[in-house]
Write a structure and sequence with these properties.
The chain is mainly alpha-helical. The protein is 75% helix and 0% strand. The chain is built from ten helices and no strands. Helix 5 packs antiparallel against helix 10. It is elongated.
Length: 192
């Protein structure tokens, strides 16, 4: 949401959710206000009024996608009773590999890539924040003695790299079986 409107109106919330569903189906790459507004029962002028600009709307959509991502991460996070890195990665991969999450993950991948090639504007900091969020969750899944060691940091960084790489390949190929086997193979190495 735009910085100057901390509490969104019911209409702004309704339109953001509708725009988010549209973005899940159509992506953000060539997002144009006119077709979006028509699809969600609004007008470009109303969207500009409520979100301040197209970048403001994009930022709100990225925040909405981030909310879904953070909800996943919250379910994986267990700092009081760390399950261990391997079980955490198994749970995260099972969620990432589920077909029903592909629209959200395609949107995430698009935003991640855009923040790398267009580091200013609506995309600013998205990729870096994503990496930091995921590393934090994986750290919370490690026992404190591992979490606080250099080896623990390297292990969670490797786990994140495997998850992210497998996710990108999954989105490109839909070859869930091959990628699940690859993730499981890497996890067997992390257990050792």
């Amino acid at each position: 949401m735009p910085q100057d409107s901390p509490t969104p109106s019911a209409r702004q919330t309704e339109l953001l959710e509708a725009a988010y569903q549209y973005a899940l189906a159509h992506g953000l790459t060539d997002l144009s206000l006119r077709p979006l507004a028509e699809a969600i029962g609004s007008s470009p002028r109303v969207l500009l009024f409520l979100f301040g600009s197209k970048d403001g709307l994009l930022q709100a959509l990225l925040e909405r996608a981030r909310d879904d991502e953070l909800a996943l991460l919250a379910r994986a996070r267990q700092p009081e009773h760390p399950a261990g890195l391997v079980p955490a990665v198994e749970r995260v991969w099972a969620w990432l590999a589920a077909k029903e999450h592909r629209p959200l993950l395609r949107l995430w991948a698009e935003a991640y890539a855009r923040s790398l090639v267009q580091p200013d504007g609506a995309w600013a900091g998205f990729a870096r924040a994503t990496v930091e969020n995921w590393l934090s969750v994986l750290a919370d899944c490690q026992p404190p003695s591992e979490r606080d060691s250099e080896d623990g940091a390297a292990r969670r960084t490797l786990a994140l790299a495997v998850l992210r790489g497998a996710l990108f390949d999954l989105l490109a190929t839909d070859d869930e079986k091959r990628l699940t086997e690859a993730v499981e193979h890497q996890l067997s190495l992390l257990r050792d």
